[in-house]
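Quick illustration, no need to memorize.
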Amino acid sequence: MTVLRLTKQFNFEMAHALEGYDGLCKNIHGHTYELFVTVIGEPISDNSSPKDGMLIDFKDLKSLVKERIINQFDHTLVLSNKTSPNLIKELKLQYERIVITEYQPTSENFLIDFVDRIKGGLPEGVKLFSMKFRETVTSYAEWFAKDNE
């Protein structure tokens, strides 16, 4: 039995603002985000299957992440529910892709949200090992299953 890890990278555009923050990130600004999703498990061992040797089809992992994360957040403006309701109302009059979260839209909070979105959609025998969410070339947050057991 061989256990291995498989990683798929995703890129998307998103803007956010940190309500009440004491630095420049209180202003609306955007990033080209990179999300790395790593799963772990044993590859399929079935000579009669076209997926023999795969842990999970990259296409299936891509579909899961696109459905649960990318399609929801790509080219959106993400604001906390603590943001002024009047501002949100005004923005929604002009822009259609605005996401309001229950959390401050930091890399760390996005990552926790994204982990929860992915965990429940993986096939049996495939577990989420880690996720990395890169906000800039030099800044990212990471989540590891072993740290959260």
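The chain has a mean pLDDT of 95.
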